[in-house]
Write a structure and sequence with these properties.
CATH class: Alpha Beta
Shape: globular
Distance between the termini: 20 Å
Radius of gyration: 14 Å
Structural class: mainly alpha
């Protein structure tokens, strides 16, 4: 939700639609850049997102910062497989990600790059 929330465009009125739009943008970005990309959501989407070039995951436990906690749980494995960049504007998540060896990119900068596609 960090990337979605980086632009106050009314996303909160249609959270599911905002997630679908983000997934479509991420799909185009991954196809263009040829990089592996995983989006971690707070909870499982109501219906599967129509994407093939990106992985869609969700928090295994509910609660505040559930997606952040899920990202941190998975970072050890991901960093072990190669370079990892976490896109977030959350200072705590950024610090936790850096502590396990991930790079961090601000949500607003990444969102701007997505919208240039």
């Amino acid at each position: 939700m960090n990337v979605i929330g980086s632009r106050p465009d009314g996303w909160w009125r249609d959270r599911a639609g905002a997630i679908e739009r983000l997934a479509a943008q991420l799909e185009r970005w991954a196809e263009r850049h040829g990089e592996r990309l995983t989006v971690v959501l707070e909870r499982r989407p109501r219906q599967p997102l129509p994407v093939t070039a990106i992985a869609v995951e969700w928090a295994s436990e509910p609660g505040r910062d559930a997606a952040d906690d899920e990202i941190v749980r998975r970072l050890g494995e991901w960093v072990g497989e190669g370079e990892v960049t976490v896109v977030t504007s959350d200072r705590e998540l950024a610090a936790r990600a850096r502590a396990v060896g991930a790079a961090v990119e601000p949500s607003s900068r990444f969102r701007a790059a997505l919208e240039e596609l």
